[in-house]
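Still learning. Any example?
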Amino acid sequence: MSNIILIVVIGVIALAVGVGGTLLITRMIAKSKAGSIIKDAQLEAEVLKKNKIIEAKEEEMAIKTEAEKQAAARLSKVQSAEAKMKQREMQLNQQQADVQRRRSEIDAMKVNLQNQLGVLETKKSEVDKMQKNVQDTLEHVSGLSAEEAKEKLVESLKDEAKTAAASYVNDIMDDAKLTANKEAKRIIVQSIQRVATETAIENAVTVFHIDNDEIKGRIIGREGRNIRALEAATGIEIIVDDTPEAIVLSGFDPVRREIARLALHQLVADGRIHPARIEEVVAKVKKQVEDEIIETGKRTAIDLGIHGLHPELIRLVGKMKYRSSYGQNLLQHSRETANLCAIMASELGLNTKKARRAGLLHDIGKVPDEEPELPHALLGMKLAEQFKEKPDICNAIGAHHDEVEADSLIAPIVQVCDAISGARPGARREVVEAYIKRLNDLEQLALSYPGVIKTYAIQAGRELRVIVGADKIDDTETEKLSAEIAKKIQDEMTYPGQVRITVIRETRAVSFAK
């Protein structure tokens, strides 16, 4: 406020004195303002200085306080560490005292042990002398040295072990015979699980070949109506996939597969493929196949000289043409069996006509119109009884796989001839070279055992006869040898069915009267 008044006064004076005076007055005003500004700056500097001094003192106090706290904490830690060190030192002193005490005890024990060892050495020398005296006495009494006695003891133990092992094996074999039926069923089920796929593919599929893949579309038809009509008429599943120039017919009934194949052949050759035409052709082919089956059955009966067969049995014989067993045609197998039965019966002086008849009919249980849950031998026997065949022929059919007990001489003849026809080289998917090699392998495997003189693989490799030296192997060891050969054959060879191992040991005494 005073500055304003001063300025006003100066202004009035300036107006009074003029321009020169104005400059003088302006300078005075500037000096006055500068002095005022300097004074204000000095005051503010004093205030800032005092504030900074106060802040510095406060910061110094804080740092000092923090340092004192840290020093106190460090002092506390050092004191705690000193206390722990003192405690540790006391413990170490105690442990050192314990170590010294134990060391003195160990030294005393060493001295004691040395004394005892000396006593033991003395006693050991006395025992050795006594043992030597006893051994000399025993050798003198028995007349045998220690090594000879050991050898005799070892031989005795070996003989006892062999006898015990053979007895144990016999016990195991007896127990296995009791549980053999159950175990055999389990093994068969496992075998079926392993080989069912490829067997089903082989026995349930027929491949129909076509000239080009355009025919596939015509067989399928619009929206699949042709293939559905064909499957419904034949009962066979028709698989049309990416396989070039082929259509797969799948079904378990071989007669139906044949009907489907012939019907497809006629439809493709004719070119007219539609549901009405499919039904017509399938019905016509069914009649043709049925006539062919009956004609085949009649021709087979005439060729074999078998008369008086029931028409239904003739039809079943004809159906065998479309069935195979392990790659062997069933009708051909039955004809072979029938002829073999007739030859064997004539050699034995039995009725050849009955034997041939039973041989032809022995597998009719494999081609029934329905599929009851019976083995094919029992089913064939029931069919033969149903169509008035004689009891001995019915029994031969049922007994050819030991399903029923044989009560006539024809039954074992049929059984043997069935095995001969099925096991001959080349009959069932086994080449001659592989067959001969398997027989040689069987004989060589048995010859590799010590004491074996000769081996013979008989019955198409289903039995192995092993002849051993009577002076090299006793009766107990023959059972062990038979089991060992059987196990080695199971582990190292592949073969159909089972192999029977028969070990023969005999003693022959030959003299000449002169």
Notes: The mean pLDDT is 80. The two ends are 181 Å apart (CA to CA).
